């Protein structure tokens, strides 16, 4: 192969590598299309560091009434390569909502892209379906010791100050055990996603991006040998 | 009065005006101190364009269970001079939560400074009390025609796209009728604020800042005549 052809091959390869990296980054960071509701649910949950939790109040005078509160959450370290989809929480029974849960562990968790720059950047109102949000219904359960290791990694990687919270609050790791999921990310009403569908997908189109990279690498090699 | 004294007076006046303006701006934008829980509740509510609403589910298979959802809210046009403290909402009975409310209008609304740049800027975790959040318990009620004028101004000033939402959704103006308020803005647990306290305060220290400006203006005049 002549020097010119080799040089041309190297330049083409470099250009393709840049383009593929850009494609990869765009794919792993991109919001899923609305027809992929399960992936959207995983994407939004993974994008959020906190959520609003609804419980049934156990407080005197308010028994059985809905009660909304704010909790930090995490399904895994931030970034496009983490995230199990399981919303972990770090709780103490000094919290009113946790006292509610001790009487009735049923709860609902909601997370929204309004919590991220996405909606503001696209000028979507928080109540606009395009500012996607997810509603989970289920219950809060304490995790066992082996799952506590995962929960700790998920939570402390996003919420490092948790490690210094007062030890006498008897913090424990918990998770939201999901039974129902609704996705509002497009016009036409809420979409229902089953927990099975939710846990079987990945939030990011990484595999799609990887196969693109492989395909472009083949093109580069072809160009090199031309 | 000599020219020098007059010049000195004008310079002093200009400096005082700048300082007073800075003080005014700082006061009207500043978060209230944690010992002023009612003002904090007003401040956080006014700072938020949306909130999480908990209702009792009326859905088949989930009756009576808590259900959390996201709604745009407004207590008045944004900025330090607006805000009645009343959370107005723009609703349609096509929304699942609104169908819940038709069966049981009891609800809980929560808003957090985690929805604003404040907590990120101060590196407060969303579950850190210093990342203040407010919990309201009460009910959702449709507003009457005269209050709808206020609700419309409050909502459309912050959520201009609402005006173009589909007319066939039969949107209506509603408000959160507050019966209980909890403020978590400092260590030591939730603070209780009554609706009377909540509605009797202003979220911003404007009066304090205005009286400072007046005091400094008096000083300027004194300097001028020295």
TrEMBL record, chains A, B:
<dbReference type="GO" id="GO:0005737">
    <property type="term" value="C:cytoplasm"/>
</dbReference>
<keyword id="KW-0732">Signal</keyword>
<dbReference type="InterPro" id="IPR055343">
    <property type="entry name" value="CREG_beta-barrel"/>
</dbReference>
<dbReference type="Pfam" id="PF13883">
    <property type="entry name" value="CREG_beta-barrel"/>
</dbReference>
<comment type="similarity">
    <text>Belongs to the CREG family.</text>
</comment>
<dbReference type="GO" id="GO:0005615">
    <property type="term" value="C:extracellular space"/>
</dbReference>
<dbReference type="InterPro" id="IPR012349">
    <property type="entry name" value="Split_barrel_FMN-bd"/>
</dbReference>
<feature type="signal peptide">
    <location>
        <begin position="1"/>
        <end position="30"/>
    </location>
</feature>
<keyword id="KW-0964">Secreted</keyword>
<keyword id="KW-0325">Glycoprotein</keyword>
<feature type="domain" description="CREG-like beta-barrel">
    <location>
        <begin position="32"/>
        <end position="200"/>
    </location>
</feature>
<dbReference type="GO" id="GO:0012505">
    <property type="term" value="C:endomembrane system"/>
</dbReference>
<protein>
    <submittedName>
        <fullName>Protein CREG1 isoform X1</fullName>
    </submittedName>
</protein>
